[in-house]
UniProtKB/TrEMBL annotation:
Keywords: Membrane, Transmembrane, Transmembrane helix. The chain crosses the membrane at residues 29-54, 66-85, 155-180, 200-221, 233-254, 274-294. Coiled coil: none annotated. This is Organic solute transporter subunit alpha. The lineage of its organism: Eukaryota, Metazoa, Chordata, Craniata, Vertebrata. It is found in: Membrane. The keyword Transmembrane helix applies.
Length: 325
């Protein structure tokens, strides 16, 4: 298509909020109202769940539960703000992604708290080994040696996830500062652009942060089965895939022009809008599911018997003696 035939509005900035309101038709009013209602209900359900958690769950586990449960409603809220105010999309995306970076670390802490804390985890699993050939880093390397569960190993696992919570927030603030100065543009893939350096580095930090969570989950999934850790981990992974991978795919399609321009939205702005509307619906459903998983009391794990290993060893000795007799 010749450049002269392109609608000039397709090259403009995202529309103002007042322009969206004045141009909404009947279907648009119903759609925007329904999605706004979903985002509002997500926040209300989350607040009610927080009240329950603070009353029924002991500290410090309740702090981790509140952070993890807040991922879906926070993302739904930021998407709702970005849907109504398209020019704030940069701020809403950075806010939700920074929050989820903290959730990655908090989910690792949650699994440890389900075991009773760091000390209880070390007592229960101190003689075990961790399989590090898991995704997203080393799932194709089954030959990697297993790692003993020690205080140093636990510290490295927690550090691997905490660095993402810290550095992602720092890079989000840096990106916003550069964007206000005109130096950060996700569509600018030139070597002199800031996005081509910041985004891949953040991607590497994301993979490094997800690896310790996967390692710990693979080790604790049977121990914490009674705590419904598998569906909880599935919801955490689903939020990750939808908020990061799905949004990235839609934005790439928009930048390539696959998603058509629809004035007053450019292709990129329309891609953001589609992603935001999908996420509001998806996060609303996830909020309801996570409420069923977390707003209930589970029986505590049975205490670990420190003499269990000695008993097993004595049983083996007795069996050997019987065989010799």
């Amino acid at each position: 298509m010749d450049n002269n035939t392109v609608d000039p509005t397709c090259r403009q900035q995202p529309p103002l909020a007042i322009d969206i309101i004045t141009q909404l038709d009947t279907f648009g009013i119903v759609l925007y109202s329904a999605l706004t209602l979903m985002a509002t209900l997500s926040v209300l359900v989350y607040l009610e769940e927080c009240i329950y958690i603070y009353r029924k769950v002991s500290s410090p586990k309740k702090t981790a539960v509140v952070w993890v449960n807040g991922a879906a409603p926070i993302i739904a809220t930021t998407c709702c703000v970005g849907m109504w105010i398209p020019r704030a999309t940069m701020f809403t995306e950075m806010t939700s992604s920074s929050y989820f970076a903290i959730v990655v670390y908090k989910f690792l802490v949650l699994m440890l708290e389900e075991c009773g804390g760091d000390e209880a985890f070390l007592r229960r699993c101190g003689k075990d080994t961790l399989r590090i050939s898991t995704g997203p880093c080393c799932c194709c390397c089954p030959c990697l040696p297993r790692v003993a569960v020690t205080r140093r190993t636990l510290f490295l696992l927690k550090l691997g996830s905490f660095q993402f919570a810290l550095l992602k927030t720092i890079f989000s603030i840096l990106s916003i500062v550069l964007w206000t100065n005109g130096n950060f543009d996700v569509t600018n893939l030139e070597i002199t652009g800031a996005a081509i350096w910041i985004n891949p580095f953040v991607g590497v930090l994301t993979i490094i942060a997800l690896w310790p969570v996967a390692i710990l989950f693979m080790h604790l999934r049977n121990i914490l089965r009674s705590q419904r850790i598998i569906p909880k981990y599935a919801m955490y992974q689903l939020v990750l895939v939808l908020s990061q991978l799905q949004s990235a795919i839609i934005n790439i399609l928009a930048m390539n022009g696959t998603i058509a321009c629809a004035p007053p939205y450019s292709s990129q702005a329309r891609g953001y809008l589609m992603s935001q509307q999908l996420l509001i619906l998806e996060m609303f459903i996830i909020t309801l599911v996570t409420r069923l998983l977390y707003r209930r009391r589970y029986d505590p794990l049975p205490p670990h018997d420190p003499h269990e290993d000695d008993n097993d060893q004595n049983t083996k000795i007795i069996m050997q003696c019987d065989n010799k007799a």
